[in-house]
């Protein structure tokens, strides 16, 4: 039987941004922003989503990834009790909850780092961080040096070779499972985490909760190094993300198809997305805005676990600058949902319902059926049935003759009011308008 995450559609929430929380944590108690987030749940369900990835959540000083307390929700969002109410409501809505695990580094106000600042070499926590040396001073004036994430000295790197650090972080995960019944962790900066640490985490979390999901943030590299039976269940599929937007921009479906074939060798469900809190919005990356809907067809029907980043369902635009990501993480009031609602919203909801209803799109085998620079068709195989996706990235309409790899007499176009298309001599002929696509249901003849 498939695990819940193999069937999931995620909704990605960046709560500090979407609630308009203060940019800096002043240490004073703020409003209960989880009340705002609760108002999103019916909307999230309406898109067909079955899980939420929300984060960062740990108490932090600024952007959320400079953790100061791993067992406290960020006070700019609300209390632990408020988050517990939120997760309980998510589960009532049959939405799984996955949170950010920022375990590569901490903020400088984390208790262990402050203890080293105060006691120097006498601190029992001096081995909790990588590269601690009292032979030099950090650029921020500390009486010692240390390894920092990508040279950002406000983010000192934890030492996962220290068993006390590992045990502390496993206790943190256990706390979030016991207190809030979370269903998984997204590991920030998984590409630089110690492999033995992640292997031990897999064993520890399997004992905490059945079907607990571990997903890692990995941008480059051989994803199978992280995704296997010993370590993580999934990683962020940046490769597919890149090939999708450049494949549409360059009118070159070969790039997408090549990437899918290569990643199929992993044989696992990677976490796929059109945009996220670190990437320019897909609506800003695409040269042709009309490609938005076929991009989401790809997202929902290609192999992988699809994720919608908040605002994507409205075609929201946004670009980061060298110094600021705020344009990617805007405040959105639930009062504006009706005003933001557009044709794309309904189309994504339809795709979400299709993904939910057809197991072929969860773990079904992928098969390429037709490929040119501007037209692409592929199948996802189920038990004596198929879902076939057909795409056209040209501005002009195109007629596709798609081979059907099972014996069948007709296809049903799930995006066009269940329009019936005949299958003749083992092929479907379909006319696609410019910048469009179709999702076809095929039932085999027994």
TrEMBL record:
Q: Which GO molecular function entries does the Swiss-Prot or TrEMBL record give?
A: hydrolase activity
- Which residues belong to any copy of the Glycosyl hydrolase family 13 catalytic domain? 8-355
Which SUPFAM superfamilies does this one have? (Trans)glycosidases (SSF51445), Glycosyl hydrolase domain (SSF51011)
Check the record and name the InterPro entries matching this protein: GH, GH13_cat_dom, Glyco_hydro_b
This chain's protein is named: Alpha-amylase family glycosyl hydrolase
UniProt entry keywords in alphabetical sequence: Glycosidase, Hydrolase
What PANTHER family would the database entry show?
A: ALPHA-AMYLASE FAMILY MEMBER, MALTODEXTRIN GLUCOSIDASE
